[in-house]
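Technical appendix A lists one of the benchmark inputs used to test multi-chain prediction within the project. The record comprises two sequence entries:
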Amino acid sequence: MANDLDELRREYDERGIGPAIFDEVRRAVGAVVHRYDPMVYAGASTWEDAMEDVVQGVIVDVLIQEGQLDYIMATAGTIEDVRNLLRFQVKRYLAKGRRRTVVDNLLDRCKERLRASPFRVIDGGPPERYGLEDGGVDPRAPTDEELHAAARAAALVPRTRPSAGDRAPAVYTREALDALLEAVARSLPSGFSLSELGTILEMVLTDWVAGFLYDFEGGEGPEEVALGPEEEAMSAAAIEQILEQCSEEQLLILRRKLEDVADEAIARELGVSRPTVHARKQEVLGTMRDVLRDVPERVQKEVMDRLSMHLVRLGTTGGGADG
Amino acid sequence: MANAADLPDRVREALRGRGFRRLPFPDEETWPAAPEPGQLRVALPMDLPSPDLPPRLVLVFEVELGEDPWVNASLVAEGPEPFTASDVRLEASETGLPFAVVIETDVVGPLFVAQLGPVLGSVEPDVLADLRRELAGDRSPRFAGRRGLPVFAHEDSRWAWKDRELATMHMLSFPCMRRELQPVTRVPETLVLVEAAATAAVMETDEPAERLHRLLRLLSAVGAPSPAAVELVPADVSQARSLVETVAELGSDALRAAEPALAGALRGRTGPAPRARWRPGWPSTGREALERRIVARALEGVRSCRVVTRRGRLARRGSPDVHALEIEGIGIVQVKAEEIEEEAA
C-alpha cells in the first residue's frame, strides 16, 4: 500500500492509528531489522518469527505510550520525514531491548557478587538492598540525583566492547565489575537494590544506544585487539609515572572533573578554595599531557582505562551535588 | 474508534483510553506566529527542498523583533533520552506536549521567525530561567537526575552524535546567522519593498511635481536605513512606466534633489513567476509582482525583507506581522509586513 502524508494525517486525525500507519510501521521494521541478528535482538531464530512482535512493540511501547507518534506527526513535513522518524523509533525500540538484555545479564552476575566481601546485604527488604561491609547506615532508596551521581562514578569504569553477534556480552571484566560495584556502593552509602543498580547500568550504557541509533563506531563491532608486550610495558610505565607524580587530591579532582562536577562543588567537598581546585586541575592535566605525549593512541586508551580503575576506587563518599 | 477490528488486540487495547493529542502539523496555518520565549515549535530549513535537513523541534529562548525578526533557540533531541550532561529532559507535564522532550542546552542558534511552525507547547518562565542557567554552563538543581552522563572520550558515540546535532543546528540557522553578521559579511541592509497598494495614492495625481512630492513622502515614511534599501514594486508595466515618467519629467534641479531618495526606488528587478506559497496568505492583488521581485532578490541571496503596504490591506495577525514565502526550488524568504497610513502615500 502506497501512502502519502495527507492520508496518514487524515488517519491520525480520525483514529490515531489505523491500517495506513500500521503499514508504515511494518515497512519501517522490515527496513531496519534485517541488519541485525534476530536471536540477539528479538530472541527469535528468524525475523519472520519476530516481526509481528516487534511491530506491535514499536506501536504500543514507543508510538502510543511514549507519545512518539504525536512527535512524528507534529514534526514531519513530508512522507519521507515520517518514514525516517519511524525507522529511528524502530531502532530505539531494538536498542532499548538490547540494552535491557545486557543489563539483565550484568545484574545476574552482580547478584552473586554482592553477597561476598567487600559487599553484603544491608537490608533484607523486599527489595534487598546491598552495600559495602562497613556501610549500610539507614538503608533507604536513593534519590534520582543520587542515582545519577552513582552512574557518573560507574561510567568511569572501562568496558569491553561487545561484538555484534554476542547475545550476552560480558561488557565488564570481573575486576572491572568489582570496581563498578564498589564505586556505586561508595556513591550510595544508604544502599541500593538490584533494580536501582539496573537503572544505573542503563544510564551508563546510554553511549552504546547513541552509537546504535546513529550508526556510529563505538557500539558493537569486531573485538578489540589486545596490546602487545611492548605496549603493555609502555602502558604500565605511563600509569606508574602518573600515579607517582600526582597527589591523591589531584587524582580526586581529576575524577570529579570526569564526572562533570563543577569546581565550586569540588572545592566544598575538599575544603579548599575554587582557585586551588582550578590550579590542581591544571597540574594533573599537565602531568598527563607530559606523560602521554609520545605514547601511541591505542596505548593511551589503555592508560586511561587503567587510570579510571584507580580513580573509581579512591576513597570518597560520593560525587558533588551537580548532575 | 472506527474500524478498530483491523488492528491487533494488543494495539487496540493500548489505544483504548489513550487519546492522541492532535498537535498542529508543521505547515499548518495556525498563525499568528508571534514568537515568545519558552515556546516549543518546529523549525523548518530555509532552503527547500532539504531532504538531508528535516524539520526539528526547538525551544525558543530569546526573541529579537527588529527589522529582521529572529529568535535564539536550542535544538530538541529526536528521542526522549538525555544522552549527555548538557541534555536536559522535560516531562510532558512541564511542556503541555504529549511526550517528553530533551533540550540540548549546548546546541543553540538563531532562526528567522518565518522558519517557525505553529506553537506546539511551552515551558513556564521559571523552568525557562533554569534552562537559561544551563545554557550558561550552570547546573540547576531542578534538573538533577534528568541529564545524561558527561562525555569524556572522543571514541564515545555521543561525541559524534553531538557533532552531528551541532551541524544540524548550523544548517538550520545559517541564513539567519549570516544576516545577523551583516557588518562582517557585507550582506546588504534589510531590503524594503513597497508594494503597489502603498503607492496607489502617489499615482492618483497627474501632476509630476505633486506625484514626486507624494512619492518622497512615502519613501520617508517607510523608515528604511537608507534610500538604497527601498524598492518600489509596481503592480504592472503601466504603473512602472508611470513611475519612470514621473522622474523623467523632473527638471534637473528637482532631479538632483530627489536623486538620493530615489536611489533604490526604481531599480526594477524582476524574476520568473514562481510557484510559491504564502504562510499566512497574502492578498492576490499585486501579489504576483511582489513575488517576482522577491524571487529576483532571493536568487541574489536575500532571505529576509520588509514589505510596506497600505494600512488595512492585511488581516493583522500579531506583532510582528511575519509571513513566510516558500518559493519552489529556493526556499523560505521571511517577509515582515508593515502598514503605513494612506496619507503617507
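Confidence is low (pLDDT under 50) at residues 317-323 of chain A. The first strand of chain A starts at residue 119 and ends at 123. Comparable benchmark entries are summarised in Table A2.
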